[in-house]
Each structure stands twice: as structure tokens, then as C-alpha cells.
Amino acid sequence: MLLLQTKIEEIPKIGTAYQKKLKKFGIKTIQDLLFHFPSRYDDFSEIISVAQARQRLSDTVCVQGRITEVENSRTFKKWMSITQAVVDDGTAEVKVIWFNQPYLAKTLKEDDFVCLAGKISLGKEGIYLNNPVYERINSLSENEDLTHTGRIVPVYPETRGITSRWLRYVIKPLLYRFAEQIPEFLPREILNKFKFLPINDAIWQLHFPESFEAADAAKARFSFEELFLIQLSVLKEKAKVMHKTAVSCPMDANLMKEFTSSLPFQLTDSQKKCSYQILKDLEKSVPMSRLLEGDVGSGKTVVATMAALSVVKNGHQVAFLAPTEILAKQHFKGVSKLLEKFDIKVGLLTSKDARIAKGDDIFEVSKKSLLGDLENRELNIVIGTHALLQKNVVFTDLVLVIVDEQHRFGVEQRAGLVKGIKSLPHLLSMTATPIPRTLALTVYGDLDLSLIDEMPKNRKKIKTIIVDPKDRKEAYNFIEKEVKEGKGVFVICPKIESKTGKLQGIAESNGNTATADFVPQNYDLRSILMNEVKAVKDEYERLSTKIFPDLRITMLHGKMKAAEKERIMVDFKNGELDILVSTSVVEVGVDVPRATVMMIEGAERFGLSQLHQFRGRVGRSDMQSYCFLFTTSPDQLNRKRLKALVECDNGFKLAEKDLEIRGPGQLYGTQQWGVPDMAMEGLTNIFLVEKTRNAAKEILEKDPTLEKYPLLKERLRNFERRIHFE
Ligand code: ADP
Ligand code: MG
Predict the structure, then answer these.
(1) 298: CA distance to ligand 1 center in Å?
(2) Are 505 and 672 in contact (CB under 8 A)?
(3) Residue 404 CA: which ligand is closest?
(4) Digit-coded pLDDT (tens) for 505-534
(5) Which of 325, 602, 609, 636 is the most exposed place for a label (fewest CB within 10 A)?
(6) Better pLDDT: 664 or 23
(7) Distance 299 CA to ligand 2 centre (A)
(8) Rounded to the nearest whole angstrom, what is the distance from the C-alpha of residue 557 to the centroid of ligand 1?
(9) In this structure, which ligand is nearest to the CA of 613?
(10) Quick check: 45 and 151 in contact, CB under 8 A?
(11) For residue 725, how far is its CA from the centre of ligand 1 (angstroms)?
């Protein structure tokens, strides 16, 4: 017996070749197939007479009729097969031509009735119906159950080797059989409140709608559904935290003043506002969950350091997690320098390194002694990579966790750091990735937001220039001049195109913000990586042999060992290299003040936010810096996007713009979450986001554990399994 959960292998219509193809798209069961939704529709709903159709040259029309003639032939060039037929409906007859579908003459016979949808064209021999979609029918009556013609016809997302026709042919009978069995998991009050179609109707109307209004109504339900699940999941997480306690750390205003006056600069107003929000949160006995968001170079580290100082002076410990070794070291140096005069012991722990800083002394220690110091509270702050999350690392009194560029740090992970202690540490997560409001309210909806929305005043605006292909030489001359003055240059290469199609993106192995524009559904990470490496190698060869044979150039890519990458970054930082040719792996946040030129090849391949991140690698000193954008794409949309980058230096606005121009496909955080298509569309709609958030809040207030909604609970569990939190 077939059930919703029956595997597609057991559906007789689906042969092994199709099974494989479907699996590539994650379709494993009948239910998956039913939830594989069309991306648009063709409107063939109006059936007109052949006589009328003949008057509508160049229009796409739908007609019915009896086949009076049908035959195959070949064009004179021999490589194209042509099937010709004549169809008559009593009002007139019309010729029909199909190209390269020789089997049609076997499927369609004289005296068959057909429904056809296609374009009325004019050829040498007069009016004909050009390559129409066809469907055999029983008679010319009006109550035929049509699938491919004579109705609003679903068109599914393009998938290699699986046609929409085939999907319609497979899905429709399954709907007849199973639509009624799909359980309704949305609570009744929500269905009523928003007047949603029940699931059984909605699924029919989404695949084979009676009208466009009905399709929209169905879509409204499904977009709501997915965002609603995200909201439930996030708000449940938030509720879990709110029910825990944390150690309160009263703020010492004098100490903070002392700290700020020890800085070689004045804090910006934004930095002051954010520090205050954080320090106030730390006073509470509810765990803080805060996201500190600010452009590259906006000065987040100082703000985080003030939080750490407050916690340490209250007698507790702080953990500071960085995404990579280089960044951990950079933070270690930076933070220990900032706290030099405050009698605080700062440690560094990576998979290879253990160091301790006290005052202006830094010394290497054994891991064991560092861990010992941590356990007996000798050590106040430890900065490190994921090595900090290992079991043997024991904080005796951890009260604050600072996380740089990792966004999601679940309650379980947080709790895991303080084994055996009842209270949860406060969490401060930092990111340079601008997060549009809709996203902040969904995917990051469990975090409170602090925004640094201004740059330190001493920064010069980076000059961003779209370089015309004919001015490439000039750009190279400029670069040479900068190098001669001792400045550093970054060259970023996009992945190149493979033979089998466009490789649009790559998921970075180190999980930092330098992620893909968007990752294709079934990408092969290894081949993409190889491809990217090749692009960089080619560019490196070209630059070092042909363009700048006298300069010191090297390359950096994701396949290199961490230690090698680090050595290169250090050399570049110290001025022992002039030009660094790199993939998008350039570590987020690595400070190279002497770099003044960021040159980006194939700029159209990156999202605006990502381009903005690259640009943030330069302009980290008081020297004038430049960002050169090279593009080979004449596409207007790309121009428009790159122009936005030239005109705007606010990462937050750029992210909103990206969302507006390109849609949410490449929003940071959405890939990490594996947000489903429907929900992605919903993410552009702030009203929908707010609606789902409120609905989720209401349900959880009534029933925090969803005991009364077992189907919803189960659906949420499956959903959470599908999207990955980490
Ligand atoms: P990010 O927000 O990218 O992490 P950092 O915290 O690394 O930025 O700060 C970048 C640089 O700016 C550091 O060298 C820091 O000392 C400096 N900086 C931070 N705040 C200010 C300020 N208010 N005025 C001037 N320089 C500042
Ligand atoms: Mg930083």
C-alpha cells in the first residue's frame, strides 16, 4: 500500500533514472514530491475555436480539435525532424508543426482528439501552430480533466533532465490519491484568523490552480507556514534562554571611564551607545543574547573589550571565540594591549598555540598550564578558536562568551561551556555582516541587536571605481605606483565557470562570512574548490609573469594549510609581499593597515554585501585607499548593483539594496540555515515576517511546549532537523 511516506522507488511510474534525478533534489518520498512546488504558471486556461485562433497571429492560444492528418518528415539539412499535423474543430482547421519530437507521430494518430497550446505563427505555407504543448483528450466536450493544456499549468523550477511535463504527469495522480491524507498541522485558530486554505486544498491549488487568485491564496499559506516554523524555532530557543539565570555584573562607571580615557582615540557615539546597552544587559540576572553588528573597521573589538573588562572586574571569566587562528591571534594581541594597564591575565588557545599576556609581557606556555590556570581562575580571559569548545577546557567561573563572526551559537553550546554550573553565560555575538530587518526578525530573532552605524572619524572614504576593460592597463599602472610607495594590494578572483555550467558559489570551508553568492542546490564542493583554485593560479601566473614581473606576488586559496595561509598573511602584513592574489577566503577581520588597493575581478559574481566586505580589507589606516571593480558583464542589473557599491559605503544599506535587487537568495545566514524557497521569498516581506512572528508568539504564550499541537510539534521537529542550526 502506498502512503505519504512511501519511497519514490515504489511508485511504478518512476524508473531508476528518474529516481536518481529526483534524489539529487532531495525528493525521496511521495510527500516530498507533493511538496515540490511550481515556480510559475502558464496560463492556457482559455480554450478558443480554431477559427478564432487563426485571427491571433503571434499570440499563444489554446485550441481543441480532431487530428485529420499527421506525418513525420526531415528537413533538407537532415538533422531536424519535423512532425506535421492538421487539426480541425468544426469551425476551421489549422496546421501544427513540432520540431524534433519524432515519437509524436506514434503517440498522436489520425482521428485522435487533442488539446494544444502554442503560438500562432506565419510560415511560407501560411498560418500554423508552432510547437504546441499537446494533450490527448476523449472528446471536444468541456469537462475534460486537463493537465498540460486548457488550464493554468504549473511550471516547475528548472531541473536538469526532469521536465515540468513529467512532473505534472507524476504529481497529479498522486494528488488525487493523497491530498486528502496530508495532515493539517497549522493550528485551527491560525487558519481561521488568516483565512488560509486548509492544507488539502492548498496543495491542489498550488499545483493545479483553478485561478491565479487560488494559486496566490495557496502560496500565501505556504510562505506563512515556513516563516512561522522558523519563528517558532527561534522563539522557543529564546524562551529557553529567558528561563535560565545568569550572573549579574554591576557596571563600575569609574572603571569604564578609566578605560575609555586610556584609549588613543575617542569612542564614537555609536560605540558608546552599544557599550552601554551591553553593560546594562550584563547587570541583569537573565542571560544576555546580543548581536553586535557593525561594518568592518567600525570598532567592535573595543566595545567587546569593555564588556570583558566589566565581567573580569566583577571577579569572573570571559571566553572569546574567533573563527580562525589568525583572527584569534589578532584579537589576543589587540585585547591584551587594550587591557595592558588593568592587571588582567589574557590567554590564547588554539589547536597549536598556548600563550599568556600579562601587562605588556607575552609568554608561551604549555597547554596544560594554561588549562590549569583557567581551572583555578588564574586566567581571566581566554581567546581562541574552536579549541576552546573541547571537553578538556574547563572554565570555573565563565560568565561571558564573546563570539566573532559565527552568528549562531546555540543554547546547548553555550550551556556546554559551563558544565555543572546552573547559570548560563551571557552571549555577545559580533558580526560585520549587515543583516536586513526581516532577517534580524527571523533567523536571528532570538538575539537583541546593537548597531554600530558610524565609522571612526579619522577614516578616509575608500574610492570605489568600476574599471572599464579598456582602462585595465591604467589600473595596473596605478597599482605599480602604489606598490612602489610601499603599499599592499589585494586581488580577489571569483570562481571560474566549469564546463558543465555556471558555478555560482562556493561554501567556504572555514565557515566565516566569506560565503558564496549562493550555493547551488547540489553543488560538488570539491570540484568548485578546485575550480576556484585554478582561477587564482591562472591569475597569479598572469600577473607575476606578464603584468608585474618585478613585484613580489603570491597567492592564497582555500586548499592551503592554515599554517601556510597564516605565514602568507603575516608576510603581507609586514610588507614582505606586494600583491596577494586570493579567492574569497581572505580572512574576515584580518588587519593589514598598509594595504590600500582592493582589486576585484569578476565583480558581478559576488553579492553586494560580500563586495563590501572585501572593500573593508583596505582603508584601515589614514592612507587613501581604493577599490577597483572589474566586470565583463554588460548586464544592466549588474551595472546597477556595482553602481550602488560605488555610491554607498554603508554595509547595512547595501544589504537592503541587495535584497531589493537580487532577492534574498544570497543573504548571509539564509544558506547557513538552509531556509526553504518559500520562506526566502517571504523574507522580502516585512509584513509577512511580522505576522508570522506575532502568530508564533501567541501560540507559544498559550502553549510553550506545543503539547496541544502534536502535529505542529512534529512538523517543527522535522523542520529543525532539516535546517541546521550550526
Ligand atoms: P571591527 O569592527 O572590524 O572588528 P576593530 O575593532 O578591529 O574593527 O577596529 C578597527 C581599528 O579601528 C582598530 O585599529 C581600532 O583600534 C580602531 N578604532 C576603534 N574605535 C575607534 C575610534 N572610535 N576611533 C579611532 N579608531 C578606532
Ligand atoms: Mg573584528
Answers:
(1) 6
(2) no
(3) 2
(4) 332 222 332 333 333 333 344 444 555 667
(5) 636
(6) 23
(7) 7
(8) 27
(9) 1
(10) yes
(11) 30
φ and ψ at residue 428, rounded to 5 degrees: -120, 115
Give the residue, by CA position, lying nearest to ligand 1 atom 5.
299
- pLDDT tens profile 363-410: 999 999 999 999 999 999 999 988 888 888 888 899 999 999 875 677
Between CA 494 and CA 521 the distance in angstroms is 19
- Count of residues making up the chain: 726
**65 closest CA partner among 44, 90, 95, 84:** 90
Burial class for 155, CB neighbours closer than 10 Å (0-12, 13-18, 19+): middle
Helix (H, G, I), strand (E, B) or coil at 113: strand
Closest CA to 133 of 144, 146, 117: 117
Cβ-based neighbours of 119, under 8 Å, separated by 6 or more: 58, 59, 60, 61, 129, 130, 131, 132
Q: Whose CA is nearest to atom 26 of ligand 1?
A: 456
Ligand 1, residues at Cβ distance < 6 Å: 265-268, 271, 294, 296-302, 432, 456, 458, 589
319 sits in which H/E element = strand 317-321
Give the contacts of 207 (CB within 8 A, at least 6 positions apart).
34, 37, 38, 154, 168, 171, 172, 175
Distance from Cα 353 to the centre of ligand 1, integer Å: 26
DSSP 170-182: HHHHHHHHHGGGS
For 569-624, the pLDDT digits (tens) are 889 999 999 999 998 766 555 788 899 999 999 888 888 888 888 898 898 888 99
The structural domains of the chain, ordered by start, are: 1-42+164-179 (no CATH), 46-150 (2.40.50.140), 253-283+299-431 (3.40.50.300), 463-498+533-648 (3.40.50.300)
Taking the CA atoms of residue 477, residue 481, residue 484 and residue 489 in that order, the dihedral angle to the nearest 10 degrees is -80
pTM value is 0.72
462 Cβ contact list (under 8 Å, min separation 6): 598, 615, 618, 619, 625, 626, 627, 649
Residue pair 714/188 in contact (Cβ under 8 Å)? The answer is no
Amino acid at position 717, single letter:
R
- Alpha-carbon span 171 to 187, nearest angstrom: 27
Q: Which residues, 6 or more positions from 35, have their beta carbon under 8 angstroms from its beta carbon?
A: 203
Q: Is 720 exposed, middle or buried (0-12, 13-18, 19+ CB in 10 A)?
A: middle
- Ligand index nearest the alpha carbon of residue 266: 1
In contact, 328 and 348? CB cutoff 8 Å: yes
Beta-strand runs (E) in 607-651: 626-630
296 alpha carbon – ligand 2 mean position (Å): 7
Q: Of all protein residues, whose CA lies closest to atom 23 belonging to ligand 1? A: 267
Q: What is the DSSP string of 523-535?
A: --HHHHHHHHHHH
On the CB side of 254, CA atoms within 13 Å amount to 0
Ligand in nearest proximity to the CA of 322: 2
**Which contiguous run of DSSP H or E holds residue 72?**
strand 60-74
